Amino acid sequence: MRSTTDCLVIGGGLIGMLTARELVATGHDVTIVEKGRLGGESTWAGGGILSPLYPWRYSPAVTALASWGQARYPRLIEELRDTTGIDPQWEPCGLLMLDTPETAQALQWAQAHDQALERIEGDAAARLEPGLGFTPDGALWMSEVAHVRNPRLIRALRASLERLGVNLREGEAVRELSHRGGRISGVRTDRGYIAAGQVVVAGGAWSASLLAGMGLETGIEPVRGQMLLFEALPGVVRRIVMNAGHYLIPRRDGHVLAGSTVEYVGFDKSTTDAAHQLLYEAALRLVPALGDFPVVGHWAGLRPGNREGVPSIGAVPGIEGLFINSGHFRNGVVLGLGSARLLAEIMLKITTTIIDPDPYRVAGISALA
What we know:
The protein has 369 residues and is an alpha/beta fold. The protein is 29% helix and 27% strand.
C-alpha cells in the first residue's frame, strides 16, 4: 500500500467518501483510512432521509447545506448508477408530518427559504397515506423530500472511488496525527506511518478523540440512534411519515424503517429492549398494518452531534494542512454533498462558490496545550 498521499481522509463514512470524491476529481492523490469498513458506522445505520427532520428548527446554516445537496442528489444518484451499475434507490416520496404545533413557524421558514411545504387537512393526509392509524387534525406536507437506501449508496460510492483511483485502507485505525512546526505531516496508524500533505478528519463521532490527542477540543459527541426494520410489502407505507419525533421510511421492495432514538450514552452501540418496544409501538400507531409483518432488523449507530447540528467544516486553527468535516448529527446524508464540496474549495483555496463558509468555521476548536 502507498505510504505517501496528497490528501488523506480519516474516516470512510459518507462524509469521508464524498470528500474524497471531490478531492480526487481535482487530480489529487487521495487515500481514505477507515478503522472498520467503509460506511459501516452511522452511514450504514441511518435512514437516508434527504431533509432535516422538522427543518425549521435548525439554523440557516443547516438549511443552506441541505438545500444545496437536495438539488444535486438526483444527478449524483444517476452518475453512480450509470458508472457502477448500483442503484442507491433515490425515492421522491415526500415527507408527511402529522404533529403540527409549529405550523406558523414551518410555513414562515418555507417561504423564507423557497421550500415546498404546505399545511393540509387531516383527510388529505389520510389520502396521501391510506394506512394511517388515525386521521390527524392537520398535517405538514413536503412533497419534494426524497430518501436513499444508505447501504446501496455506500456500495455505489465505494465502487466509484475505486474506479477513480482512491486508495481505500479499511480495518486500519489512526493512532496519532503527526505535525511539525505547526504543519500536518501525516498520520500514524496501527499499520505504520502515512505521509500526507493534507489531512481531513471525517471520523464522525470519533472525530473528537482524534483531535483531542493534539490538545484540541471539538465539542463533537456520540449520539446513539436505534432503528427497526419491518419486512412489509410495497404500498403498506407510501410516504415518509412522522409523528412526535418518530418516523417510517418505505423502501422500494416494501421494507419499512422505523426510527429513531436519540440517546447520549457515550460510545455504547448496543441495542435495548426498551428502544425496540418504543419504536415498535410508535410504528404501529402510525400504520397499524405493520403489526402483520415481522421485524427483521434492530440496530444502533452513533451520530456525531455538534453545535446543534451545524457541522464543523474547514481548517483547524494552528495546524496548517489539517481540516475537519464532521459533526453533522442526524443529517449527514442530506448535508454531505454540500459539506464535501465546501471543504474541497477551502482546501484547494478556491473562492467558495456554493455557500458562505463562515458558519461552519472551526471556531469551536480551541488549543488546550
